[in-house]
Specification:
Elements lengths: L16 H13 L7 H13 L5 E4 L4 H9 L7 E4 L6 H8 L3 E4 L11 H7 L4 E5 L10 H10 L3 E5 L7 E2 L2 E2 L6 E5 L12 E4 L3 H11 L3 E4 L3 E4 L10 H32 L3 H5 L16 E4 L7 H13 L14 H4 L9 H9 E4 L7 H16 L1
Parallel strand pairs: 2-3, 2-4, 4-5, 5-8
Antiparallel strand pairs: 1-9, 6-7, 8-9, 10-11, 12-13
Helix pairs in contact: 1-8, 2-8, 3-4, 3-7, 8-13, 10-13
The structure holds pyridoxal-5'-phosphate (PLP).
The site of pyridoxal-5'-phosphate (PLP) has 14 residues, from helix 4.
């Protein structure tokens, strides 16, 4: 039976024929990297999308955050508060600039950083907060910026998963301090690999340009100087062409994802949580872009998630993911003094969260197939 079911991944990019043709044009043009027309056009469209704020593109949604911290002058001796439930990049960038990561536990309902715990973690050395909008669900943005203002902190929003998410009708990225997006292949809008940083001022954008290309400033015909230590983080025109193609469909993709999420809730039914002991996500139809659809499994011991993922794969040919394991329990963070028991909600959810299939090309029938499989595996 299993062998006949088509494989369903948990995520898959959709690149349309127009986009493929545009990439072909770039390849034929001879101008493959930055400085060409596609990067400039992509940055222009992104800036318009984010209400005219300065935007620069990069080759990942990791270096975007590292560069934001550098622009803010954050380094050794400074503390930056973030969540343990994110891709490890979010905490790694704090270490990359020589600052000290400070974790605040998550709210078990939203699975995002608990803003009460952020306030409690602030010390005289705190310089910034990096909130993560897990699965595309923003935190309480009013509260976040009230805390930042009160304590004079910078904010680097890890909005890697939140392209197209909104807060009170405004797009995430269209307001706030630094806002970082990723265009990695699983994200709602992809360039294969890539990212962008939304900033506040033209001066920050100039610094961002330096940090992304060896600190170089060019002038005149052959003028060149280097006055900051930058890296090699530029986006290619090939990637930007993919991004331009994706910009055309992003609003339709976001709407389709919301429809799929709605169908997940309807198909699981109101009794799902009581029936199985599993926990569904918050029904955030006014804010989320539904980047991921995650459930928290009922705890059946140390192999709970591995057993669940294996059964879905072997018996139903459905792939799942987990986003994420708690960062503070990784060896490199344990070596810095973190240990079990420090952030209990993150540790529980880091062990029991599972990501169900959700991507642009999915259908409502796919959703029904996943729900049927989840119900069957949890009933065992
Ligand atoms: C994808 C992602 C990143 C990193 O983005 P890359 O483009 O892979 O560097 C960071 N944080 C979160 C929450 C992400 O989902």
């Amino acid at each position: 039976m299993t062998a006949t079911l088509p494989f369903l991944p948990f995520s898959k990019p959709t690149i349309d024929e127009d986009t493929i043709a545009m990439v072909g044009d770039v390849l034929r043009s001879g101008w493959l990297t930055n400085g060409g027309p596609k990067v400039a056009e992509f940055e222009k469209q992104l800036s318009a999308y984010f209400g005219g704020r300065p935007v620069r593109t990069f080759n990942s949604g990791t270096c975007t955050m590292e560069i934001a911290l550098r622009i803010a002058g954050i380094g050794p001796g400074d503390e930056v508060i973030t969540t343990p439930i994110s891709w490890v990049a979010t905490a790694n960038v704090i270490l990359e600039v020589g600052a000290t990561p400070v974790f605040a536990d998550i709210d078990p309902v939203t699975r995002n950083i608990d803003l009460d715990k952020v306030e409690a973690a602030i010390t005289p050395r705190t310089r910034a907060i990096i909130p993560v909008y897990l699965a595309g669900l923003p935190v309480d943005m009013d509260r976040l910026y009230a805390i930042a203002k009160k304590h004079n902190l910078r904010v680097v929003e890890d909005a890697a998963q939140a392209f197209g998410s909104t807060w009170k009708g405004q797009r995430i990225g269209a307001f706030g301090d630094f806002v970082s997006f990723s265009f990695q292949v699983n994200k709602n809008l992809t360039t294969g690999e890539g990212g962008c940083l939304v900033m506040n001022t033209p001066e920050e954008a100039v610094l961002a340009e330096k940090y992304r290309l060896q600190g170089v400033t060019r002038s005149g015909v052959d003028g060149i100087d280097v006055d900051v230590l930058g890296g090699k983080y530029n986006m290619t025109d090939i990637a930007a062409a993919i991004g331009l193609g994706q910009m055309k469909t992003i609003d339709a993709v976001t709407a389709h994802r919301a429809e799929l999420a709605r169908h997940y809730f309807d198909t699981f039914g109101a009794d799902f949580e009581a029936r199985t002991g599993a926990q569904l996500p918050v029904q955030a139809f006014d804010t989320s872009n539904w980047h991921l659809f995650q459930i928290i499994l009922p705890d059946r011991g140390p192999n709970t998630r591995a057993d669940f993922m294996t059964a879905l794969k072997n018996e139903h040919n459905i792939a799942t993911g987990f986003h994420y394991a708690a960062i503070h329990l990784f060896t490199m963070y344990r070596e810095r003094g973190f240990h079990e028991g420090m952030f209990p909600e993150s540790e529980r959810i880091g062990r029991l969260t599972v990501t169900l299939p959700m991507f642009a090309a999915m259908t409502k029938a796919d959703v029904e197939r996943v729900v049927g499989a989840v119900n069957a595996v949890l009933a065992k």
